[in-house]
């Protein structure tokens, strides 16, 4: 999973990943963890538009969006040049 963290360090986002150690079963699952809570928990957020691992991720300077690019997909570990933007407030990927 890729783990971008928002400025201030209270919110962490877990994006994509794989079900197995070989990375052949890639995931679309995404979660947010708010570390400021007494008992932080995984909260599901909008799924990635395509299952992906090994991509780069960063957070916008104003903390409202997460950008991801590249990575690999599926059993054959196909390299991708896709990029997506996650709007944190709207809980949507484009």
Number of strands: 9
The share of residues in extended strands comes to 25-35%
- Profile the largest sheet: 4 strands, antiparallel
Low-confidence stretches: none
- How far apart, in Å, are the first and last alpha carbons? 19 Å
> Could you state the oligomeric state of the chains shown?
single chain
What is the helix tally?
0
**Count of the separate structural domains:** 1
Task: Work out the helicity level.
Answer: under 10%
Q: Structural class, judged by helices and strands?
A: mainly beta
Output the helix-strand order.
EEEEEEEEE
Q: Please give the radius of gyration in angstroms.
A: 13 Å
Q: Please tell me the overall pLDDT.
A: 86
**Strands side by side in the biggest sheet:** 4-5-8-9
Shape: globular
């Amino acid at each position: 999973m890729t783990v971008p963290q928002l400025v201030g360090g209270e919110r962490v986002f877990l994006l994509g990943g794989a079900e197995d150690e070989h990375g052949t079963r890639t995931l679309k699952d995404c979660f947010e963890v708010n570390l400021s809570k007494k008992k932080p928990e995984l909260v599901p957020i909008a799924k990635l538009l395509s299952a992906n691992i090994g991509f780069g991720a960063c957070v916008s300077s104003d903390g409202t969006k997460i950008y991801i690019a590249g990575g690999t997909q599926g059993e054959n570990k196909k390299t991708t040049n896709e990029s997506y933007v996650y709007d944190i407030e709207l809980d949507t990927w484009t």
